[in-house]
Amino acid sequence: MRNSVIAAALAGGVLISGCASHGPDTSAEQSIPVSVAVARTASFSSPIELSGTLSAVNNATVGAASAGRIVSVSVRVGDRVSAGTVLAQVDTSQYGAQLVGARAGAAAASDSQRAAQAQVAQAQSRLQLAQTTAGRMSSLYAQGAISKQQQDETQASLAAARAGVAQAQAGLGAAASMTAQAQAGVTAANVPLQNATITAPFSGVVTSKFVEPGSVVGPGSPVATVQDTHDLELDVAVPEDNAASLVPGASVAVHVDALGGAQVPATVRAVVPSDNAALRSATVRISVASRAGLLPGMFARVSVPGSTHRGVSVPFAAMVTRAGQSGVFAIASDRATFMPVQPGVVNGTSVEVSGLHAGTRVAVTNIAQLTDHARVTVSHS
C-alpha cells in the first residue's frame, strides 16, 4: 500500500514537471526594490599600528647636594608629592657650626669697616682744620706778620693732613673688601645648610627611594626618583613615508592595554629625524592626555596614517556575505548579480574593494533579500 502511494506521488510529480516543461512562469516573480550607489575611484590610506611605552616628561632622580648622614626620610615609594615637599634631611650640625663661624667673621669685618669709617672722618676733620690754618697763615705771611719757616711748617701740616685722609680712605677700602668677603662666606656657608634639606623639584609620584635614616650620602648620591604622572609622552619610530603626514598638533588615537584598550586622546608634539639615515624613520613624540589610572611604563598602541593609494570605493552598506564570501550585488537592468570582492581599507562610511570596476552600480538597501539574478526595481540612484 505504501509503495503504491509513493509511486502515485512520483507519477504526479512527473506530470507536474511535464506541465512545467513549457517554460518558467516569470509573471509571478516578485521584484525587490533597491537603492543603488556607484562604485567610485577614491584615495585610501592604510593605517599602521605602532607601539611603545608611556614615559613621564618630568622624571628626575633627586640627589644629595650636601654630604652627610641622612637623619630622616619623609616619603615612601608610591607617595604623591608636591613641588617643594621634603623628601629627606641630611644632618646639619656641621654646616650650622660653619655658618655661625662665618657670621662671626662677617660681624668682625663690619666692626672693622665702621672703625675705618671713623678714621676717615677724623682725617677729614684734621684736613679741614689744616686747610683753614694754611689759608690764614698765607695771609699773614703776605703781610710779613710771620716768618718763612712758619709758612713752610703750615704747608707741611696741610700736606700731612691730606696724606692722612688718603691713608684713612685706603684703610676703609680694605675694610669694606674684607666685609664683602665675609658676607660672601656667610652666603657660601648657608648653601650646604639649605641643600641639606632635599625636596621634590616638581609635583608627582615617588617611584624609587635609595636611602634610609642613617645612610651616608655625598654630593650627587641618589635619594629618590619623582615622576610627573600627569604629563606623559609616547615615543614611537615611524617609517619616513608615514612620518610625512604627521605634524605637531595633529590628533592621534592612543590605546592603552592596561586600561582595557581604552582610547586616550593624544596629539603629536614633535617629529624628530633619526640620526641614522639608513633607518629611514623618524621618532614621533606624542603628548598623551592625563586620565585616571594612566601611569608611566604602561604599554600603548597608536595608529598613524599609512601611505596613500588609489582604489575602488563602495558604501559600507553595500557589503554582504554569502556562503562565507564577501561581495556586493551589482545592478544591471532589472537584475542583481552577486559579485565577490575583497574588502580593504575602511574610510568613514565607505570601504575599498578589489574585484570590482569603478562605475558599477551596487545595491545599498534590501540586500539581505537579494539572491543572485534576483529581479529588482531601482527606487532611486
The general outline is elongated
> Would you report the number of β strands?
24
Tell me which oligomeric state these chains represent: single chain
Tally of alpha and pi helices: 4
Strand ordering within the main sheet: 18-19-20-24-1-23
Beta fraction of the residues?
A: 35-45%
Q: What is the helix content?
A: 25-40%
Average pLDDT: 87
**Unreliable sequence segments:** 1-27
Radius of gyration: 48 Å
Summarize the structure.
The chain has helices at 2-20, 93-142, 148-195, 240-243, and strands at residues 32-38, 40-45, 48-56, 59-63, 68-73, 80-81, 86-90, 197-199, 204-209, 216-217, 222-227, 232-239, 251-256, 262-273, 281-288, 299-304, 308-315, 320-322, 325-332, 335-340, 342-347, 350-354, 361-363, 374-380. The protein is of the alpha+beta class and 381 residues long. The protein is elongated.
Structure description:
The chain is built from four helices and 24 strands. The N terminus is likely disordered. α2 packs antiparallel against α3. With 381 residues, the protein is α+β, with helices and mostly antiparallel strands.
Task: Indicate the topology.
Layout: H1 2-20, E1 32-38, E2 40-45, E3 48-56, E4 59-63, E5 68-73, E6 80-81, E7 86-90, H2 93-142, H3 148-195, E8 197-199, E9 204-209, E10 216-217, E11 222-227, E12 232-239, H4 240-243, E13 251-256, E14 262-273, E15 281-288, E16 299-304, E17 308-315, E18 320-322, E19 325-332, E20 335-340, E21 342-347, E22 350-354, E23 361-363, E24 374-380
Parallel strand pairs: 1-24
Antiparallel strand pairs: 1-23, 2-17, 3-12, 3-16, 4-11, 5-7, 5-10, 6-9, 7-8, 9-11, 12-15, 13-14, 13-16, 14-15, 17-22, 18-19, 19-20, 20-24, 21-22
